[in-house]
Amino acid sequence: MTAQIGRGTSQTKDGTQLLHYELRLPHPVEEVWAAVATPEGLPGWLAAADVLEPRLGGAVTLRWLNNEADGVHSGQVTAWDKERVAEYTIDLHGRIRFHLQPTGPDATTLRFTNEFAGDDALRLDCLAGWHNHFEFLLDALDGRPKDWSTWNLDSWQCLRDSYEKD
Asked: Structural domain of residue 21, as residue ranges?
C-alpha cells in the first residue's frame, strides 16, 4: 500500500479556520505515534520538540527547522491519550490535533485537525504547509527523515497555488 496525501479541507467561521486532513498510512500505530508525539520523531518531518511533556497540560515548545527567524512556538498539550490522540495548542499554529486509529496490524488512519484564528491568506498558507509536512511525514515513516538543509519554498509554493485555485 502506497500512502498519498489527500487534499486538506477547510472551514471558516467567525475568523476561525478549521483545517482537516485524513491520511491512510501503511505503518503500525506505534510508528505513527512515535513520529507525531515524541521528541525523537517530530524533527524528522515537522519541528524539533525542545520541550514536550507527554501528558495533558504538559508544556510543549516546537522549533521549526526550516530557518524561520521566528520559528520557536510554545504552548501546552491540550489532549493526550497514548497511541490515540496527541493535541498541542501553541501560540502560532493554534490547536493541532493528531487522532490515530489502527486499521490493521501495519496500517493507521491519521485524522489531523488544525484550528486557528486568521484570514484566508493564512488558511491557504497553512493548508499548503501541512500538506508539505505530511509529505515529509510519509518519507520519515519510510526511513527517510527530512534533511532540513535541503528545504526550500518551491514545493510549498506549488501546493499553495494549487489550494488557492480550489
From this structure: 9-165
| Angstrom distance (rounded) from CA 68 to CA 46 | 13
Question: Which CATH number characterizes residue 26's domain?
Answer: 3.30.530.20
Instruction: Please report, in angstroms and rounded to a whole number, the separation of the first and last CA atoms in the chain.
Output: 28
In a domain, 138, yes or no: yes
Residue 3 lies in a domain: no
User: Which residues have CB under 8 Å from 107's CB, separation 6+?
Assistant: 1, 24, 25, 26, 27, 28
63 neighbors 90 (Cβ within 8 angstroms): no
Q: What is the pLDDT of residues 54-105, one digit of tens each?
A: 999 999 999 999 876 678 999 999 999 999 999 999 998 899 999 999 999 9
Residue ranges of E strands in the chain: 9-13, 16-25, 47-52, 59-64, 72-81, 85-90, 94-104, 107-117
Q: Say if CB 101 and CB 24 are below 8 A apart.
A: no
- Is there a domain that residue 86 lies in? yes
Of residues 20 and 2, more confidence is placed in 20
Task: Tell me how many domains the chain contains.
Answer: 1
Predicted confidence at residue 2, as pLDDT, reads 57
Cell readout for 23 is 491520511
Is 156 inside any structural domain?
A: yes
